Amino acid sequence: MSPALTTSEDAPRVEATDGAPAVRLSHVHKSFGRPGAATAVLDDISLDVAPGEFVTLLGASGCGKSTLLNLVAGLDKPTAGTIEVPGARPALMFQEHALFPWLTAGKNIELALRLAGVPRAERRAEAERLLELVRLGGAFGKRVHELSGGMRQRVALARSLAQGSNVLLMDEPFAALDAITRDVLHDEITRIWAERKLAVLFVTHNVREAVRLAQRVVLLSSRPGRVAREWRIDLPQPRRIESAGVADLSIEITEELRGEIRRHGQH
User: Fold this and answer.
1) Rounded (10°) CA dihedral 263, 220, 224, 85
2) Do 25 and 134 sit in the same domain of this protein?
3) What is the chain's pLDDT, residue by residue, as a tens digit (267 residues)?
4) Which of 49, 140, 174, 234 is spaced 20 to 30 Å from 14 by Cα?
5) Rg from Cα positions in the chain
């Protein structure tokens, strides 16, 4: 096993290491459908995310990764179990930018600031500061149709940060982007995570993306989703997606993911 990798299998809980967790899921179950004919999507998920920790979630399609993120975000409720997120409600960033096309980049961010309770007189300056943070200084007045795909995702990230939470939930936010743009945004989210000391829970299907970004990779089994295995990644940041260390760890994790898919008869 690589010295940059430590693993834990069959653990009842993935514990936060530094005091109280930023996110705690305890024996969470989620089913959809009417009683007696419900389909279990998540089963007995216990997972902690420490303050300032970057955790990626991997698993086959349909294993409940996005459902789990929606539960943590408070967009849905678990069928059983508890979810604790001390502090401000988590900020959620989707695969699609979901920007309002009739508003400028800056006004999209100002709307999030207004909902977060920022006084009107302070919103313009704060929106411009957040655009600078995501390297879009000067784009306040740009309409959505004037922005490239990568720029739109930067605005979406700035809007998420405008919510003022120390927990950022990201649901495959870079999946639709080309490889070069995605690579640049990997650098940006790593920088912002470190600067803002955010706890990040990041869903992806891309194993190399998971290894490049995370301090810890959590693999969910297929239908219903359970914590199957975790890997603690000790490679120094910043990382390159093409580096030997990232590639080696990705191969090991991919083999485990394939094994989960075979065990559950998924394709």
Assistant:
1) 170
2) no
3) 444 544 444 333 344 444 689 999 999 998 887 777 778 889 999 999 999 999 999 988 778 888 999 999 989 999 999 999 987 789 888 777 788 999 999 999 999 999 888 999 999 999 999 999 998 888 899 999 999 888 998 999 999 999 888 999 999 888 888 888 888 889 999 999 998 899 999 999 899 999 999 999 999 988 788 899 999 998 888 888 888 888 889 999 988 888 877 776 654
4) 174
5) 19
Q: Around 228, how many Cα atoms within 13 Å sit in the side-chain half-sphere?
A: 24
**Domain count of the fold of the chain:** 2
| Complete edge-to-edge strand list for the sheet that includes strand 80-84 | 39-49, 23-32, 80-84
Q: How far apart are CA 228 and CA 63, in angstroms?
A: 11
Residues 219 and 191 in one domain: yes
168 contacts 88 by C-beta, under 8 angstroms: no
What angle is formed at CA 51 by the lines to CA 47 and CA 54, rounded to 5 degrees?
Answer: 70
| Torsion 42-48-49-51 (CA) sign | positive
Domain limit, last residue, from 124, 147, 164: 164
- CATH code for the domain in which residue 12 is found: 3.40.50.300
Kind plus residue range of the DSSP H or E element containing 160 = helix 149-161
Position 197 in a domain: yes
Check whether residue 155 and residue 171 sit in a common domain: no
**Which tokens go with 242?**
């093409």
Domain hosting 228: range is 5-90+167-263
Cβ proximity of 104 and 141 under 8 Å: yes
Domain boundary among 129, 146, 164: 164
- Looking at the fold, whether 218 and 116 belong to one and the same domain comes out as no
